[in-house]
Amino acid sequence: MTFDIDHKAADGAGTILLLGAGRMGGAMLRGWLAQGVPASAISVADPSPAPDLVELAARTGVRLNPADGAPVDTAPVDTLVVAVKPQMVESAAAGVQAVLAPHTLVLSIMAGKTLADLRRLFPAAGSVVRAMPNLPAAVGRGATVAVAEAGCPAERRERAASLLTAVGSLEWLADEALVDAATALSGSGPAYVFYLVECLTRAGVEVGLPADVSERLARATVEGAGALMGATGQPAAELRAGVTSPGGTTAAGLSKLMADDHLQSLLNATLRAAAQRAAELGGTGPKA
Ligand SMILES: NC(=O)C1=CN([C@@H]2O[C@H](COP(=O)(O)OP(=O)(O)OC[C@H]3O[C@@H](n4cnc5c(N)ncnc54)[C@H](OP(=O)(O)O)[C@@H]3O)[C@@H](O)[C@H]2O)C=CC1
Ligand SMILES: O=C(O)[C@@H]1CCC=N1
Q1: In a domain, 265, yes or no
Q2: Domain Pyrroline-5-carboxylate reductase dimerisation: where (predicted)?
Q3: Do 253 and 222 fall within a single domain?
Q4: Buried b or exposed e, range 164-173, using 16+ CB within 10 angstroms
Q5: Are 90 and 215 found together in one domain?
Q6: Same-domain check for residues 84 and 224
């Protein structure tokens, strides 16, 4: 069975096959639909789709696993978006070679997998673009970096850009070596912020707050601080100064948080470890 993609219905957006529709792939899919990419132009291959994805496909007409659950298609697609785990891609790629044609753009969001890896995995594709979004893409607030293979035509870069900016901001990088570093900062970064909320919650309990109150306050504080930073565009250090009354409570708190650059050293080590892991996931990568 083939996907039988309706090229006319794509209406300029081109046909898209999304390989892997978990957290990130699913978030991007929702962004494309919200931006008006026709559902009839999109096929999704995912062996065990979540119930909300099944419901979305039924409601919108996005084609989900039409080949009896196998991620196989025989019709070439304009864009193949690769959103499986890097550890899965060797086997996943084998199932989609038939969709590749000289006009096909492969757009990968996998951590660690390099342009050279993508070229090896998808040899018949016309161009490859390597991107790194982040999970706030689920609410249209993703921060993405991308790098294109040398010689990638402007039209395909623009196609990649339109799919990536459907879920947030995009920065093209000239140097692929920076992608692992960006992965460590913005790709993984939301998890560091969520962990900060967890730690603040526990610290609030430590100073006497009931756990539920502490959690609500910690969440609202991080949400509000992020919104303020976004709304004002002011440098973080200036915003911090605005909270810190001389001789007040914040100065007392920061005297612990900033002592001996502990937090800075910890974050340096955190990003180094994440970037190192991204590098390990490249090539044929580790199995787990
Ligand atoms: N999560 C994040 O914040 C970010 C993730 N990324 C990248 O996005 C990619 C996906 O991550 P994430 O969404 O978190 O992972 P998920 O596990 O949520 O999504 C991956 C999806 O791919 C499916 N899958 C597995 N094998 C195949 C296959 N052969 N063909 C098609 N689909 C398959 C999985 O199914 P099953 O669950 O059954 O295995 C799952 O639904 C990764 O490469 C990651 O590096 C990039 C930026 C941020
Ligand atoms: O943890 C990971 O490997 C992926 C890539 C960036 C965020 N999540």
Answers
A1: no
A2: 176-281
A3: yes
A4: bebbbebeeb
A5: no
A6: no
Q: What is the ipTM of this complex?
A: 0.99
For ligand 2, atom 8, name the residue with the nearest CA. Answer: 188
Residue ranges making up the domain that contains 99: 7-179
Q: Is the pLDDT of residue 6 over 60?
A: no
Token pair of 131 as six digits: 């991107």
Does the residue 275 lie in any domain? no
In a domain, 267, yes or no: no
Tell me how far the alpha carbon of residue 111 lies from the centroid of ligand 2, in angstroms: 6
With a Cβ cut-off of 6 Å, ligand 1 is lined by 19-25, 45-48, 71, 83-86, 88, 91-92, 109-111, 132-135, 187
Q: Say whether both 210 and 147 belong to one domain.
A: no
Spatial separation of the C-alpha atoms in residues 79 and 73, rounded to whole Å: 13
Residue-level pLDDT at 2? 29
Read off the pLDDT band of 75 (50, 70, 90).
confident
The answer, yes or no, to whether any atom of ligand 2 lies below 6 A from the CB of 281, is no
